[in-house]
Amino acid sequence: NDPQLACHNQQRGCEARGGEFLLGAEVVDILKRNGRAAGVKLADGSELLAPVVVNASGPHSFKINRLAGVEESMRIRTRALKREVCHVPSPAGLDFNRLGAMFSDGDTGSYARPEVGNNILVGSLDPKCDPQEWVDPDDYDQSFSEQWKTQVMRAAQRIPELPIPEQPRGVVDLYDVSDDWLPIYDASDLPGFYMAVGTSGSQFKNAPVVGKLMAELITRVEAGHDHDNDPVRFLLAYTGHTCNIGFFSRLRELNPESSYSVIG
Predict the structure, then answer these.
(1) Given Cys at both, which of 11, 18, 162, 196 links 56, Cβ 3.0 to 4.6 Å?
(2) Spatial distance between the Cα atoms of 69 and 66, rounded to a whole number of angstroms
(3) What is the pTM of this model?
């Protein structure tokens, strides 16, 4: 359950296969040549040329889409949402790391799971009574608010002995949220520019298969397939099921079956 370690492992695996990372480099423009995406321009003026560009920039996804000039034609768009995730000690005498389970409680609008150090992680299921703070991912308040105590008190309705410290601990960061909280895995109106965005909250565990799904989509579209009118179908190797990638289209209508929450 360590996302930083998981990303580090992914980085090392990519580098072992020839991938390169430029950490801390800021993308300021999407290069275009002959009506296609042609690479990216960085803040230091350097240009990285490529036949295909994939927007997988998390909470910055809408900014990158605007640089590419593709946002206006999308029916489903993304925004950055501030999130507070709480870390609180387990009740005295309870080894929650060993005995605890992940649970999701729609009645209290919260979820919880074990966290390192015999702590309990408490998050929100975005009940309608909670305000949502949509922010600029380059300029937002990274401190905890009253929402921290509210979320912990909700969890305490199910765990009455749960300690509620005066000093908040946990994580304040951002989700990359689409209009219906379901991801966008798609091409765009700019040939050569693709998107794996709107993924926050429910898609981290799916990253490995999403990489294969995007590779299949890109390979087919670059070979001339009209994905918008005849969606690419992707075979899931271990289950044998077929995934219609059109389900994740930027041109879809709002999905009424979505929870419109972190559950997706």
Answers:
(1) 196
(2) 5
(3) 0.93
